[in-house]
UniProtKB/TrEMBL annotation:
<dbReference type="InterPro" id="IPR013785">
    <property type="entry name" value="Aldolase_TIM"/>
</dbReference>
<keyword id="KW-0349">Heme</keyword>
<keyword id="KW-0411">Iron-sulfur</keyword>
<dbReference type="InterPro" id="IPR010723">
    <property type="entry name" value="HemN_C"/>
</dbReference>
<keyword id="KW-0963">Cytoplasm</keyword>
<dbReference type="Pfam" id="PF06969">
    <property type="entry name" value="HemN_C"/>
</dbReference>
<keyword id="KW-0949">S-adenosyl-L-methionine</keyword>
<feature type="domain" description="Radical SAM core">
    <location>
        <begin position="3"/>
        <end position="239"/>
    </location>
</feature>
<dbReference type="InterPro" id="IPR006638">
    <property type="entry name" value="Elp3/MiaA/NifB-like_rSAM"/>
</dbReference>
<dbReference type="InterPro" id="IPR007197">
    <property type="entry name" value="rSAM"/>
</dbReference>
<keyword id="KW-0408">Iron</keyword>
<dbReference type="InterPro" id="IPR058240">
    <property type="entry name" value="rSAM_sf"/>
</dbReference>
<keyword id="KW-0143">Chaperone</keyword>
<dbReference type="InterPro" id="IPR004559">
    <property type="entry name" value="HemW-like"/>
</dbReference>
<keyword id="KW-0479">Metal-binding</keyword>
<keyword id="KW-0004">4Fe-4S</keyword>
<comment type="function">
    <text>Probably acts as a heme chaperone, transferring heme to an unknown acceptor. Binds one molecule of heme per monomer, possibly covalently. Binds 1 [4Fe-4S] cluster. The cluster is coordinated with 3 cysteines and an exchangeable S-adenosyl-L-methionine.</text>
</comment>
Length: 385
């Protein structure tokens, strides 16, 4: 890893509002039936950025990610105000990556040129499926045709764009997924995020699944669909660089690499998380999830922080393993030893190599194999023990 990668610093900004709540989603997103006071929220984002910068001092921002919720519900001037605040309080790298998550609806696509003018240079579209029946099942408000039109508008406005698809949907076969994924790759210039449908507690899908009204693929079929994903993407030049993310070499999402490589990032906005080094100690920070409560906290205190935990060496090392082994590039065991104060157990490494779950490169990097990725949690638990 280069020194520039070691010094990467990201800023995550959370816009918590959506037009409707998708039935599979357990993210911090909220529906409001009255207009959002965007000017007031923009001032609060700027205030929290100012307070965070004063606390941690100088940093060079290498990536900014506007996530949600649905950030494409923001007016371009709101996005511009947030980016201006980041530039006011930190140095921003000349080649900074500025990503914005967007719904692929025609209304939101009309704002793309405005986002580009505001400073966004990469957009990530929540397409999720390429047929109307699946989109309806997933609770999405756009049609497949509308989504592809939005992708075409993104292609004109941005040199870099990505979109998401959800697979392992009810009644989806490997042949159906192969055809859909091949079409998607034809539309995606450089990057795709491909997530298996998971049933999360507290979501409408959880209740339907428990009642037997929503049937998802069994473990064997889900594994076949995962293997199809890897094979089709690799064949078309978009290999997996992370367990759910595929890109042409050099087109990886640099902001997400900050997370997975265990680097520093500030979390701004309602329910945002951050990992910041303060006086040589790694802090895990999270803000108030409730948008209006966060807003009032920021207006009163300058920030919306609810939890600020100092991570000990063991907690940092566990997080480094958990995040780093999601990457195709794997981890450097020497960095693990430097963080934790102890090396990984060579006997556990040997056993996992024998089982075909990991490999150790010539330069000593430890990587999870394709057979190991579906049981990644077990591999991480084994190594961390």
């Amino acid at each position: 890893m280069t020194s520039a990668e070691n010094e990467a610093f990201g800023v995550y900004v959370h816009w918590p509002f959506c037009l409707s709540k998708c039935p599979y989603c357990d993210f911090n997103s909220h529906v409001r039936h009255t207009a959002i006071d965007q000017d007031r929220f923009a001032r609060a984002f700027a205030r929290e950025i100012e307070t965070t910068a004063a606390r941690i001092g100088a940093r060079t921002v290498s990536s900014i990610f506007l996530g949600g919720g649905t950030p494409s519900l923001m007016q371009p001037q709101t996005v511009g105000a947030i980016l201006d605040a980041i530039g006011k309080h930190w140095h921003v790298a000349s080649d900074v990556e500025v990503s914005l998550e967007a719904n692929p609806t025609s209304v939101e696509a009309t704002r793309f040129a405005g986002y580009r003018t505001a400073g966004v240079n990469r957009v990530s579209l929540g397409v999720q499926a390429m047929d109307d029946a699946s989109l309806k099942m997933l609770g999405r408000l756009h049609t497949a045709e509308e989504a592809m039109k939005a992708v075409a508008i993104a292609r004109q406005a941005f040199t870099r764009y990505s979109f998401d698809l959800i697979y392992a949907r009810p009644d989806q076969t490997p042949a159906m997924w192969t055809e859909e994924l091949t079409r998607a790759i034809g539309e995606a210039a450089e990057h795709l995020s491909l997530y298996q449908l998971t049933i999360e507690e507290g979501t409408p899908f959880f209740g339907l699944h428990a009642a037997g009204k929503l049937k998802t693929p069994d473990e064997g079929l889900a594994r076949t669909l995962y293997d199809v994903t890897q094979e089709v993407c690799a064949r078309h030049g978009l290999p997996a660089y992370e367990i759910s993310n595929h890109a042409r070499p050099g087109a990886e999402c640099r902001h997400n690499l900050v997370y997975w490589r265990g680097q520093e990032y500030a979390g701004i906005g309602p329910g945002a998380h951050g990992r910041l080094d303060i006086d040589g100690i790694r802090h895990a920070i999270a803000t108030d999830k409730r948008p209006e409560a966060w807003l009032m906290r920021v207006e009163s205190n300058g920030h919306g922080v609810m939890t600020d935990d100092e991570l000990n060496r063991e907690e940092r090392a566990d997080e480094f393993l958990l995040m780093g082994l999601r990457l195709a590039e794997g981890i450097d065991p020497k960095r693990y030893a430097a963080i934790s104060g102890r090396p990984l157990d060579p006997r556990r490494i040997a056993l996992l190599r024998e089982e075909g779950a990991i490999i150790v490169d010539g330069d000593g990097r430890l990587r999870v194999t394709q057979d190991g990725f579906p049981v990644l949690d077990a591999v991480v638990a084994d190594l961390a023990a």
